[in-house]
Amino acid sequence: MTNNPFESAKAQLAQAAKAANLDPNKVEQLKHPDRYVEVSIPVVMDSGEQKIFTGFRSQHNSARGPYKGGIRYHQDVNLDEVRALSFWMTFKNAVIDVPFGGGKGGIIVNPKELSEGELERLSRGYMKQMWRNFGPLVDVPAPDVNTNGQIMMWMRDEFEKQTGTTAPGVITGKAIENGGSHGRTEATGYGGGYVLREALNAGLVPTDRKTIAIQGFGNVATYLAEYVKEHGFKVVALSDSKGGVYNENGIDIALAEAHKKETRALAGLAGTSEITNEQLLELDVDVLVPAALENVLTAENAGKVKAKFILEMANGPTTPEADIIFAQNGVTVVPDILANSGGVCVSYFEWFQNQNNESWTKEDVLKKLDEHMIAAFEAVREAQTKYNTTMRTAAYIVASQRIIEKM
Ligand code: NAD
After folding, report:
1. Which of 162, 169, 261, 383 would staple 136 via disulfide (CB 3.0–4.6 Å)?
2. pLDDT tens digits for 293-321?
3. CB 128 within 8 A of CB 158
4. Beta-strand relationship, 273-275 and 67-74
5. Parallel, antiparallel, or unpaired: how do β-strands 211-215 and 139-143 relate?
6. What ligand 1 atom has the least distance to the C-alpha of 220?
7. How far, in Å, from the CA of 290 to the mean position of ligand 1?
8. Any residues with CB less than 8 A from the CB of 131 and at least 6 apart, and which?
9. Can you tell me the distance from the alpha carbon of 156 to that of 165, in angstroms, rounded to the nearest whole number?
């Protein structure tokens, strides 16, 4: 069994290579990131003591454009995870057809244990050690788990100090007043919603009850929930790291947000009963959306999943073993590299606006996002029919062909 994300990523590519008879030399090259860098970051803590943190950046492939991908702050960050995430970014950027390659970075740290000042010194320290690897036309980072617009601003500022340039396009996910784009906050959730709408129109989604269960209740889940409601779906279950809530008649999302803000948990939400994260994944619903973590759908629970349609909003939620079970059970899985690519699509729009000194309205951004999501969905569906395969393998085929052409 492989729960090593980098091994899962390579197994997914191998499936596509076999189905579409891809050039074996290019496929072998794609199994190896172009380079990865590990740095030591000295940070003076508030106590006056110095601590050394470890940071990474993996640059997977740049055939289609500058490396692009987020920077994660987490105590479990490790090289295999960073390499897998950079690999997925190469393919995601190719599926959504933005001119970027794939990169990813991280620091081993629990940011909740740092003061604001320590977090700033750590973020600037990462850029001080890494700036030679970054640049608007070289490698463009963004936020990921536990990083945000404020951290991006410190990093942009540090990059500009080190290089003596003005370079808003060196990083995306910035606050609007610091060169960010309208629509970036909504992009991933809405993008997933647009894909769900296309799948509905193509008759791929069971609509017996129009019920949907979402694991996670963060940025992505919130905007997806808002969008699907407009299309007549009922969100019957939601969860966070502490557990989930369920109401067969539908959960009021605004109420859930207010409750979570007040109590910092979903548990106890009026009109709902409590369920575990495991139970949520096995609910009898039309659509299941993992929108929290990697490796939640595995060989152990895939056979118990009752939903016939899965929209992967998290990165890497399904292991290759679970994928086989889903295919056998007739479950349609819309893969992460398609379903959650709306985020990086609008990151590209942000970069484009920075490089061209433009500012687009939210309406413009969401319209362009919708066009990209539709085109990506259609390309994947076409490949799925042509190669008679799953949507995941079809998405990898579309991406690989685009990348290999440029290699
Ligand atoms: P977030 O931090 O805003 O929300 C994550 C949610 O997951 C929170 O509600 C948290 O409580 C919940 N969670 C954490 N541990 C959990 C557990 N063990 N069980 C159940 N829930 C748990 O993050 P987000 O930006 O919404 O991202 C969610 C997922 O989508 C991640 O996998 C991320 O990599 C992926 N993603 C995000 C974006 C983006 O633009 N934000 C883009 C592409 C992919």
Report:
1. 169
2. 889 999 999 999 999 999 999 998 999 99
3. yes
4. unpaired
5. unpaired
6. 26
7. 9
8. 158, 159, 162, 163
9. 10
Contact 105, 352 (CB under 8 A): no
Distance separating the N- and C-terminal Cα atoms of the chain: 32
The CA distance from 311 to 288, in Å, is 6
C-alpha–C-alpha distance, residues 37 and 123, integer Å: 16
Six-digit token string for 282: 């096995």
Answer whether residue 2 shows pLDDT above 80. Answer: no
Label residues 364-396 b or e (16+ Cβ within 10 Å = b): ebbebbbebbeebbebbbebbeeeebbbbbbbb
Q: What is the DSSP letter of 153?
A: H
Q: Mean pLDDT score of the chain, rounded to an integer? A: 96
Report d(CA 217, CA 237) in Å as an integer: 10
Given the residues 10, 68, 104, 210, select the one marked as catalytic.
Answer: 104
What is the model's pLDDT at position 15? 93
What token pair was written down for 141? 């980072």
- Report the candidate in 248, 227, 235, 174 with the shortest Cα–Cα distance to residue 369: 227
Encoding tokens for residue 86?
């950079």
pLDDT digits (tens, 9 = 90+) for 223-271: 999 999 988 999 999 999 899 999 999 999 999 999 999 999 999 999 9
Confidence of residue 4 (pLDDT cuts 50, 70, 90): confident
CA dihedral (174, 175, 177, 182) positive or negative: positive
Does the annotation mark 260 as catalytic? no
Residue nearest to atom 11 of ligand 1 (CA): 240
Whole-structure pTM value:
0.95
Burial of 164 (0-12, 13-18, 19+ CB in 10 A): exposed
